[in-house]
Every structure is written in structure tokens, then in C-alpha cells.
Specification:
136 residues; single chain; 51% helix; elongated; 7 helices; mainly alpha
């Protein structure tokens, strides 16, 4: 059992819920005793904070491969890669071919071209970009 699952079970118990069935405990249950409830919440409030381990570029790429995504999916763009995408687009290379060459999704290529002002939002939508820019 991993730590997260154990804490989810403790949380359910502290809230008077059977973690297996999802039903509330009866009033005479030991889990409804105020001392037990306080003890469970004390454990939950004072659990050690796990530091999130920062993954290396190679680890992120391995995760992408394991999930069936392009190798560079979700990773930051390099200036060299951006220039390469723009020059390939200007040379009339198909979006799918550009995407495959830089290990990205076609929508990522379209989004980059739109962001850099190479194409308009209307062109991006016509090319199949599925989202629109949201301004806060």
C-alpha cells in the first residue's frame, strides 16, 4: 500500500465513513469517539510533506513514451526548435511532418505558429487547432 492510499483511508475514518463501503459509521462505532477522531485528524494534519522530485528531461520523455505521447509533448520549446518549425512551415512542409520531426503533436505546431504570429487565429482554427486563447 502506498502512503497516499493510506492517508485517504485515514481521512475517510476521521470523517466517520467506512473507507471500503462508503457508508457512515454507526453512532456507537469507535471511529465516532471524539478522542479517536482527534487522533486521526492529528495524524492527517501532521503528515510529512513529500517533496516533489523534479524529473529530468529524459525521465519526462520516457513518461511521454509510456503514455503514447510524442517524445517532447509538454516540454518547453528551444529557440532552435522554434526556428526550425517556422522555417519548415515557410517551406510549405505539412504540419504532420513538422510535428513528427520535432516529436510534438500537430496542434502544438499550429499553436506555436499562432503564438509567434506566423498564422492568424482563423488560420489556426481552419488547420484544426482545438482551443482558443483565453485572456484573464
Amino acid at each position: 500500500m502506498d502512503q497516499d492510499k493510506a492517508y485517504l483511508i485515514l481521512d475517510a475514518l476521521a470523517n466517520g465513513v467506512d473507507p471500503i463501503s462508503g457508508e457512515c459509521f454507526p453512532h456507537n462505532s469507535p471511529y465516532n469517539n471524539p478522542e479517536v477522531i482527534r487522533a486521526l485528524f492529528y495524524i492527517l494534519r501532521n503528515k510529512p510533506i513529500q517533496k516533489k522530485v523534479k524529473k529530468s528531461l529524459e525521465q519526462k520523455q520516457q513518461d511521454n513514451q509510456a503514455r503514447g505521447l510524442p517524445l517532447n509533448y509538454g516540454l518547453p520549446w528551444t529557440d532552435t526548435c522554434i526556428d526550425d518549425v517556422i522555417s519548415q512551415y515557410n517551406a510549405n512542409s505539412p504540419i504532420e511532418m513538422i510535428a513528427k520531426g520535432v516529436a510534438r503533436k500537430p496542434s502544438s505546431i499550429i499553436g506555436l505558429l499562432k503564438k509567434k504570429g506566423i498564422i492568424t487565429e482563423e488560420q489556426a482554427l481552419n488547420m484544426g487547432l482545438r482551443y482558443q486563447t483565453h485572456y484573464a
